[in-house]
Design a protein that fits this description.
Elements (H helix, E strand, L loop, with lengths): L8 E8 L2 E7 L3 H7 L3 E9 L2 E8 L4 E8 L3 E9 L6 E7 L2 E7 L5 E7 L5 E8 L6 E7 L2 E7 L5 E8 L7 E9 L5 E8 L2 E8 L4 E7 L7 E8 L2 H4 L1 E8 L5 E7 L3 E7 L6 E8 L6 E6 L4 E6 L1
Antiparallel strand pairs: 1-2, 1-24, 3-4, 4-5, 5-6, 7-8, 8-9, 9-10, 11-12, 12-13, 13-14, 15-16, 16-17, 17-18, 19-20, 20-21, 21-22, 23-24
Amino acid sequence: MTSEPFKPQLLQLVQSENDWSIVSAALPASLLEALGQGIATSAVLSRDSVDYSLFYVAASKKLLMFSHDPQALLTPVAAVSVPEALDYLDVFYLGGAPYIATYAKASSYLNLYRLNVDNSLTPVHNQYVGSGFTMMHVLPYRDTTCVVLYNGTTGDCVKYQLAVPPYDGLSLTQVWSDIWAKTWGHFTFFEFGGENFFLKINQQHEKVNIDHFMDDPDEGSHPVLSKDADNSLLSSSVLAGFQGPEGQAYFLNYQYNGSLSLNSIYPNCLGWWPLASQTVSTGGTVLHPFTTAAANYLLILN
């Protein structure tokens, strides 16, 4: 007996005053067909007051781009070829224009691309950083931008600061490094008051931390919260975060057994409020929260 292939799921995150619920929503057949199978990772970007979702298909090395729409939810815009394979994808901005950072664990290079007006990608820098990193994230802070990478096998963590030379292209300079404990994962980044924070789980050592990255580029992070992880975090398959319109920080926890929960992080980062939970299908590997003018949604993909 063979199991049925995983089908993407669409959920609506509904807020009614102070109450939240997670409700199943119909996934339009046209959107299901456009998404296809094999989504490896995703991101959200904004350009000219329009929000877009990006989905990377590993088999074709294509970046699928959809605009957010209150009626159609996600409208296909482009399928962009990515020159190099990737495991991790993030979006950042320079002068209001969107750029994309990518990294593959088997590779030794961090790749930076400019997203052009015609939705093509132009490589602007590739930086040797070494192989094996299991987290990559771009940290914007005031008038500077950094990229941080972490290797869960060795504990190595490194930060690069981005600079814009007088002519074309970008450059990266290593400004900080450290050795963290091994096996941290499920990194979820968020902001409070323009400051960079992140939640991380160590399922092997049964810990959960919320850390604050220091303001100076040449400084690291320090824990604001460090405590034992409960069973829901120890059995987490995927975590994903998103910011509310007034700066609230939320994270979604999708467990291997299909339990899904929505949580709101305290403004002092010393914990979180559980807001809503739902049981969904198992087998998803990517959580993609996105917002239209009408509602908040979550796609569970594979």
